Each structure stands twice: as structure tokens, then as C-alpha cells.
């Protein structure tokens, strides 16, 4: 897998009181003991955790030449992510996000817009073209937010040129540009959350059923791009996947939730891993649902304990129905498990 996206860190702050923070208001609260990571790091980590050790995961990214950037690169390298194409940028800070949370669980975040990740260029992606050529016809091209859109498009273009499977996600604010520029002609797997699905379907507010919104979004997308596999995550509402022929729904595992941050990225990683292993989209959906559900049991946006064995045990504990092919992926004869 060759991917680009944000590499950075963040912190979580719980506000006192549920009323919306005012422009000039001072509000008390406290820091949470949670580690926040950015999208390329999260997805790459889980793909590495779910694939065999000989599956190369190559990150195209930028961090600041600072303590945070060095620590993040070390963490990525420690789990087997190839960071040789992660550049340290002088006079730039590593991407940072400040997440605020209300007592009712809602919240938002503020992310630095002038970070090292924001300096990613198409020229830097061009330098990685030999890697795409090396893995022609047997790779995954991944394009994720938190780096400039033109750099992500270049990754998808190379993925197209060299016959990769192409996966991408976009923010809600990017959906209008995605629609106008027809970027999705370069995408095989589009990962959305419910808000992004509403935006792509031209729905300003989700007033009706979540399922109705998702059906409208999928219909709008596949009408223009029949080749697309589309997934939509909706928190406790579970997830949906369009595999080219039918839309399937999987309920979220009824597991105690500590934090939902990063769950969508874990889900996407499960889809990518499943497809890379050779599962069809609906089978990969089973794997993705387990990965996303388990990720919410950790306070951090990367749950470093997740692997195939943990997914197998989770499905067994909560009596999650799995197809035989997915069971085979998560376990091997004799009751032992893949340690990838």
C-alpha cells in the first residue's frame, strides 16, 4: 500500500457544561488522557496490524523537524510502516489537532492549517512514481485528508496508471469540490461517514432516516460512478457497504464505548486489508465492522492491541455472524491465529 495523508498528533479537552462555547467565553475543563493521531498514521497502523508481515505499507508524508514529528515517525517505523518517504520539514510544525468534548459526548476540533502536512506537493508524490511502477498491478493507492487535495489526486492518478486498487476519503467540506472535479473516477473504494454521505447526496440536514440518507447518497454516487464500492459509517447505527450489486448493513458490535475518535479510520483499514487479502467487498465489510467496533474500546485514536486474533475473539464473544471466508482469514485450523 502506498498512501498519503496527515501525520500528526493532538490532545483532547473536556469542557465543563454542555452549552455551546461562545466567541469570547472562558470555560473550565480538563485534559483527557487520550492520544490523538492523524489519518495516514491511523489507517496505515491498522492495515499493518491486519496484514501479514511481508505486506509493505509505504507512507508519503511530511512532519516538522521537531520532537513530535520524530516521535511519530519512530512509532510508525516500530510497527513496520515504511517511513523512508516521510520527510522532515525545517521551520514547520508537525500537524496538531486540539479536540474539545462536551459532557454529552459531542464536540469538535481545531487543526493547524500551516503544518508540515500542508506542504505536501504533487512534485513530492512524483518522486515516488518508481514505487508505483515497482508494484504495478498488485498494490493499494490510498488518499486521505490533512494534506492538499492536489497531492492526493496525484496518488490516485498514479494508482490508476499502474493498476492499483484505489481507496480514498474526503472531508465534508471537500465534497462539493469532489463532485465538481469528478475525482471519483480515480477511486475504487470511497469511505464516508453519515455527514459526508449527506453532503455528497446534496442533503443539507439529516432529517429523515439514516438509512434513507445513505441509500440516496449511494444511488447518487453509483449513478455517476458504477464501479465504486461505497462504505458509510454511522456510529452506533452501524455501517453500510455497496459492493456493486447490493447495499448491506452491519450493526455495530454492542461493546462498551470509550471513544469513537478514529473508528472510521479503523473501519477503512479493515476494508483495505480485507480486499488486499482477497475478500470481496461484502466480506471485507465484516472485517471492517469488527475493526471499527473494537477501536472504540480504546481512549486513543490508535488501539495498538488490535490484530486478527482480537477480531476473531470479539466476533466469538459477541456472537457476530461471519462468513466462512472471513472466519478463515481470522483463524486457521487447529484453533491458532494469524499473528500478523
Number of helices: 12
Tell me the CATH superfamily: Ribokinase
Which whole number gives the mean pLDDT?
91
What coarse outline follows from CA principal-axis ratios?
globular
* CATH topology annotation: UDP-N-acetylmuramoyl-L-alanine:D-glutamate ligase
Task: Count up the domains.
Answer: 1
- Element-by-element helix/strand order: EEEEHEHEEEHHEHEHEHHEEEHHHH
If strands are numbered along the chain, what order do they take across the biggest sheet? 6-5-1-9-10-11-12-13-14
- List low-confidence stretches: 333-340
Largest sheet: 9 strands, mixed
Ends: how far apart? 16 Å
Number of strands: 14
Radius of gyration: 19 Å
CATH architecture: 3-Layer(aba) Sandwich
Structural class: alpha/beta
Instruction: Supply the CATH class.
Output: Alpha Beta
Q: How much of the polypeptide forms β-strand, as a percent range?
A: 15-25%
Q: Percent of residues in helical segments?
A: 25-40%
Amino acid at each position: 500500500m502506498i498512501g498519503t495523508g496527515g501525520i500528526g498528533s493532538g490532545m483532547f479537552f473536556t469542557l465543563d457544561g454542555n452549552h455551546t462555547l461562545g466567541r469570547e467565553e472562558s470555560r473550565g475543563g480538563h485534559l483527557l488522557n487520550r492520544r490523538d493521531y492523524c489519518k495516514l498514521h491511523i489507517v496505515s497502523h491498522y492495515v499493518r496490524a491486519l496484514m501479514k508481515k511481508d505486506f509493505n505499507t509505504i507512507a508519503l508524508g511530511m512532519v516538522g523537524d521537531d520532537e513530535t514529528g520524530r516521535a511519530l515517525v519512530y512509532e510508525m517505523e516500530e510497527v513496520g510502516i515504511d517511513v523512508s518517504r516521510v520527510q522532515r520539514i525545517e521551520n514547520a510544525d508537525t500537524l496538531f489537532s486540539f479536540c474539545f468534548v462536551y459532557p454529552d459526548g459531542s464536540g469538535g476540533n481545531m487543526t493547524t492549517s500551516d503544518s508540515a502536512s500542508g506542504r505536501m506537493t504533487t512534485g513530492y508524490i512524483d518522486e515516488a512514481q518508481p514505487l508505483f511502477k515497482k508494484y504495478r498491478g498488485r498494490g493499494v493507492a490510498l488518499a486521505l485528508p490533512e494534506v492538499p487535495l492536489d497531492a492526493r489526486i496525484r496518488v490516485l492518478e498514479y494508482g490508476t496508471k499502474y493498476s492499483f486498487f484505489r481507496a480514498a476519503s474526503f472531508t465534508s467540506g471537500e465534497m462539493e469540490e469532489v463532485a465538481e472535479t469528478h475525482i471519483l473516477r480515480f477511486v475504487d473504494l470511497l469511505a464516508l461517514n453519515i455527514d459526508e454521505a449527506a453532503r455528497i447526496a446534496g442533503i443539507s440536514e439529516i432529517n429523515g432516516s439514516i438509512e434513507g440518507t445513505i441509500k440516496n447518497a449511494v444511488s447518487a454516487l453509483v449513478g455517476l460512478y458504477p464501479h465504486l464500492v461505497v462504505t458509510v459509517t454511522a456510529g452506533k447505527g452501524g455501517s453500510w457497504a455497496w459492493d456493486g450489486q447490493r447495499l448491506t448493513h452491519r450493526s455495530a458490535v454492542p461493546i462498551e464505548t470509550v471513544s469513537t475518535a478514529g473508528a472510521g479510520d479503523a473501519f477503512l483499514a479493515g476494508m483495505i486489508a480485507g480486499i488486499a487479502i482477497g475478500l470481496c467487498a461484502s466480506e471485507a465489510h465484516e472485517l471492517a465492522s469488527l475493526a471499527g467496533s473494537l477501536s472504540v474500546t480504546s481512549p486513543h485514536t490508535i488501539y495498538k492491541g488490535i490484530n486478527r486474533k482480537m477480531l476473531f475473539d470479539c466476533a466469538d464473544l459477541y456472537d457476530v455472524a461471519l462468513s466462512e471466508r472471513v472466519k478463515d482469514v481470522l483463524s486457521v485450523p487447529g484453533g491458532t491465529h494469524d499473528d500478523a
